Automatic annotation (TrEMBL), chains A, B:
One Pfam family matching this protein: ADH_N
Name used for this protein in its record: Zinc-dependent alcohol dehydrogenase family protein
Domain annotation Enoyl reductase (ER): ranges: 7-338
Organism (species): Nonomuraea monospora
Cofactor(s), names only, from the UniProt record: Zn(2+)
Gene3D superfamilies: Medium-chain alcohol dehydrogenases, catalytic domain, NAD(P)-binding Rossmann-like Domain
Keyword Amino-acid biosynthesis belongs to the record: no
Keyword terms, alphabetized: Metal-binding, Oxidoreductase, Zinc
Family in the record: Belongs to the zinc-containing alcohol dehydrogenase family.
Length: 340, 340
C-alpha cells in the first residue's frame, strides 16, 4: 500500500509500505476513505520534535472495515467507522471514567500511521464507532474532523466548562481552536470570542458561531478580553496552541474560579506556580478523550446539525501529502484532507 | 494595644501598636478572643519572602465585635465572629460565584495583622460570619481553625473533588493538610491516604479520618500510591505544601482525569507543560475562598460534628508569639494558638 513517511524534518514521502495485517485478535484492518494532516504533525516536520529514524505519519482516519481479528465482537467488515488517535479498550476503569485517551491498554495511532491506504486499528471494538449507515460523500470531511480536531475542540470546551450564560475565549485559530468555537456554541455558550488575526479563519470562526473576534495577542489580547468582560476575565478559555505565550494568555484571560481547557500539545511550557496559584483558575487538558464524544459527534454530523468538515480548506490526493505539509507549515491551509 | 511585628527574618516582637480605628464606613473593630500562627507566616519569618520594613503579622482571627462603621448593616457589636484572611464584600460577581478570595474589593488581612488584641475588619458585613450564640470556650480553637486552615483544607478537598467512592491522597502533614484529611472524610471520601513521617501528625491524621498512612516521599511516595490504587493513581489529591517536589508528587499521584486541589502557597514552582498535558489531571487551587465555607463549618463545629481545633498543639499568650514562631519553624508544633 501507499503511505506517508517522514524521513527528516521537511522531508515527507509517500511510498510503498507493507500492507497491515491482523496482529492481535482484537485488531481490525480498515481501508481509509479519507485521512488528514494534523497541526501536531508539524512539530516533527519542523524538527521541534526529534525523529528516531523514518516515521510513518498520521493518526486521523475514517474508512471501511476490511477484516477483523477473531476476538472482535461488535465491529464488522463493511462498516464505515471513525476512531480516535488513541486506540482504547473502552472497558477499563479509566475508559469508563471517560478518559479513553489514558486507557490502560492504549496504543497511539501515530505510531502506526494512518496517512495511508490501509491501517491496522488495535482494540477495534473499543476504538471504532460505526456510523448508522454508509455516509453521504459530503459528510466524510466532517466525520474525519470528528476523529481528532472536532473531538479535541469538544474536549477543550468541556474542560473549559463552556455552557449557557458563559463567555468563552478561544486562543488559537487552527482547526482545533475553530472546532472549539463550534463546540462552545453547541454546549450553549452565550458569547464566544475567537482570537485571530487571519481573515479567512475569522470568517470560519464566525461561521462556527463566534460572536466576537479579538485580533490582539499576548498582554494586549488579555487586556482586550478584560475590557469585554467587565474587567473580570472570561468564564471559560480554550487554549489550542501549546506555547508558553498562549498558555499564559489563556490563564490571564480567565476570571478567578473560571476554567481553562488546554489542548495545544505543550512545547517548552513551564507554568509559574505563584501566578497559577493567585489566578484561581481551573486547569484541565491534555490529549483529548475523543472516543468519549464520538457517538454524540457522529450523531450531530449525520443529522447535519454541525459542519466541522469546513476546517478542511485543501484536499489533495494522498500521493501529494508533501505539498499538504508545506501548505499547513506555511499557514496557506488550515487543514489538509488527503484522499488515498 | 499589643501586636506581633516581624522586624527581620527570625525576629518577631510583640509590641505596642496603635489601636485600630474605623476607616471606612463598612469596617468593624473586633477584640480578638484567639489568633494563631500560620504555616505561611513562616515564609517571611524564614526570609524566603522578602520583608519591606517591619510588618504586622497574622491573618487568622475570631473575636467579639466592639464597634461597627455607619454602613455596616448585619454585623453588630457584641457578636462573636469568624472571618477569613481575605476581607470580601460577598456581593460582587466573583464573590457570588464562590470566590470571595478574589472579591473585586478584597483586602488581605495579613496587611492589617491579626496577631494582636484588636483588629480592623474591612467589609465587615461581607467578611464576618457570626456564631448563633456566644460559643463555649472549648469551641474557640475549632472556630479559629475555620478562619484559615480548616477553610483552606476544605477548599483543597472540594477542588480535589473528594467525595463518595473516591480515594484521596493528602500531600503535606501541616495543619492545612490535616484539615484536608478531615474535609475529605466529611465530604464522603471512602479512603484517605495521609502522607506523613511524623508519628504525632500521623495520629492526628488518623483521628481526622485517614484510613492509610504513607511515609515515603517524592518518587517513592508516588510509587506507593500507585501500588495502593491498582496502578492507576488516586482520584483526588490534596497538595498542602507549595514546593516543586510536593506539586509534582501530587500531580504524579493522581490518575488521568483525577483532580489535584493545591493550597500550599507556591514558592519557586514551575510546572512542566508537557507532563501536565500528558497527566490529564484537573488542577485547581490558590488562596482558599474560606468565606464560602464558613457558615457550614461553623455549623459543624457548633454541633460538635468536627473538632479541627485539635491542630493546635501549643497555646501561648500573645506576648510569647516569638516562641510560637520558633516552635513552628522547628516543627516542634503543628500550629500555635495565641491568646491576646
Amino acid at each position: 500500500m501507499r503511505g506517508a513517511v517522514l524521513h527528516a524534518p521537511g522531508d515527507v514521502r509517500v511510498e510503498d509500505r507493507p500492507d497491515p495485517e491482523i496482529i492481535e485478535p482484537t485488531d481490525a484492518i480498515i481501508r481509509l476513505t479519507a485521512t488528514c494532516i494534523c497541526g501536531s504533525d508539524l512539530w516533527p516536520y519542523r524538527g521541534v520534535e526529534k525523529l528516531d529514524g523514518p516515521a510513518p505519519m498520521g493518526h486521523e482516519y475514517v474508512g471501511v472495515v476490511e477484516e477483523v481479528g477473531s476476538e472482535v465482537r461488535t465491529i464488522r467488515p463493511g462498516q464505515f467507522v471513525v476512531g480516535s488517535f488513541w486506540a482504547s479498550d473502552n472497558t477499563c476503569e479509566i475508559c469508563r471514567s471517560g478518559y479513553q485517551c489514558a486507557c490502560v491498554q492504549r496504543v497511539l495511532m501515530g505510531t502506526i500511521g494512518t496517512q495511508s491506504e490501509l491501517a491496522r486499528i488495535p482494540l477495534a471494538d473499543g476504538t471504532l464507532v460505526a456510523t448508522p449507515a454508509m455516509p453521504d460523500a459530503d459528510l466524510v470531511p466532517s466525520l474525519l474532523a470528528a476523529s481528532d480536531v472536532l473531538g479535541t475542540g469538544w474536549f477543550a470546551a468541556v474542560a473549559a466548562e463552556a455552557g449557557p450564560g458563559k463567555t468563552v475565549v478561544v486562543v488559537g485559530d487552527g482547526a482545533v481552536g475553530l472546532c472549539g468555537v463550534l463546540a462552545a456554541r453547541q454546549l450553549g455558550a452565550e458569547r464566544v470570542i475567537a482570537m485571530s488575526r487571519h481573515a479567512p479563519r475569522q470568517e470560519l470562526a464566525r461561521f462556527f458561531g463566534a460572536t466576537d473576534i479579538v485580533t490582539e495577542r499576548g498582554d494586549e489580547g488579555v487586556e482586550r478580553i478584560k475590557e469585554l468582560t467587565d474587567g473580570l476575565g472570561a468564564h471559560s478559555v480554550i487554549e489550542a496552541v501549546g506555547t508558553q505565550e498562549s498558555m499564559m494568555q489563556a490563564i490571564r484571560s480567565t476570571r478567578p474560579g473560571g476554567h481553562v481547557g488546554f489542548v495545544g500539545v505543550s512545547h517548552d511550557v513551564a507554568l509559574p506556580g505563584d501566578e497559577l496559584f493567585m489566578s484561581l483558575v481551573h486547569l484541565h487538558g491534555g490529549p483529548a478523550p475523543v472516543r468519549q464524544y464520538l457517538p454524540k459527534l457522529i450523531e450531530l454530523i449525520c443529522e447535519r446539525a454541525i459542519d466541522p468538515g469546513k476546517v478542511f480548506d485543501l484536499t489533495l490526493p494522498l500521493d501529494q501529502a508533501a505539498e499538504g505539509y508545506r501548505a499547513m507549515d506555511e499557514r496557506r491551509a488550515v487543514k489538509v484532507l488527503l484522499q488515498p
